[in-house]
Design brief:
The chain is α/β, with parallel strands linked by helices. The chain has a single domain (about 15-155), classed as Dehydroquinase, class II (Rossmann fold). It is about 35% helix and about 15% strand. The chain has five helices and five strands; from the N terminus they run E-H-H-E-H-E-H-E-E-H. The chain has helices at about 30, 35-50, 65-75, 90-100, 140-155; strands spanning about 15, 55-60, 80-85, 105-110, 130-135. The protein has a five-stranded parallel beta sheet, with helices on both faces. Strand 3 (about 80-85), helix 4 and strand 4 (about 105-110) form a beta-alpha-beta unit. It is globular. The two termini are about 15 Å apart. The structure holds ligand CA2. Ligand CA2 binds near residues 20 and 32.
Length: about 160
């Protein structure tokens, strides 16, 4: 069970978005919808606030930056919502970082990765996180934050 003893009560939750998600709303509208990353981050901040939490929203196209953010979360955040995007399917290093983090982690995908190309069906990180949400679009992030809030409340 995650041990989130290191982060103070008022610490934010980390919302981490991986490569190319900064292009949301500009391309691939049929797959990911019209919403932008800014819209998703606003939804995350609003949903977190509804549960008395703060969301620290970040996006990077770089695997090492994502891994550093997960390491930082060990002491600076109370939980993680992560859409690792393309790195979901390739990154053993990101999986290893998440496996070591000892925080509640929710993996989110906008699309249902199991209805798409075979190479998207496997996520390297799903086996080390507590919860996976996919196919709910941007609402999946709100679901993830609501779930994190409940876990944090249960573990108070
Ligand atoms: O469904 C998801 O959220 C994904 O994590 C999105 C990733 C994809 O590689 C995963 O298989 C599923 C892709 C994010 C890139 O998003 C773009 C948005 C607009 C234009 C191009 C890419």
């Amino acid at each position: 069970m995650p041990n989130h003893a290191d982060a103070p009560q008022g610490a934010p939750v980390l919302v981490l978005n991986g490569p190319n998600l900064g292009l949301l709303g500009l391309r691939e509208l049929a797959v990911y919808g019209r919403g932008t990353l800014a819209d998703i981050e606003e939804l995350c901040r609003r949903t977190a606030a509804e549960h008395g939490l703060r969301a620290d929203c970040r996006q990077s196209n770089h695997e090492g930056v994502l891994i550093d953010a997960v390491h930082e979360a060990r002491t600076a955040h109370r939980g993680i919502v992560i859409n690792p995007a393309g790195y979901s399917h390739t990154s053993v290093a990101l999986r290893d970082a998440l496996a070591a983090v000892e925080l509640p982690v929710v993996e989110v995908h906008l699309s249902n990765i199991h209805r798409r190309e075979a190479f998207r069906h496997h996520s390297c990180v799903s086996g080390v996180v507590g919860t996976v949400i996919c196919g709910a679009g941007a609402h999946g992030y709100a679901m993830a934050l609501t779930h994190l809030a409940q876990l944090l409340e249960e573990n108070r």
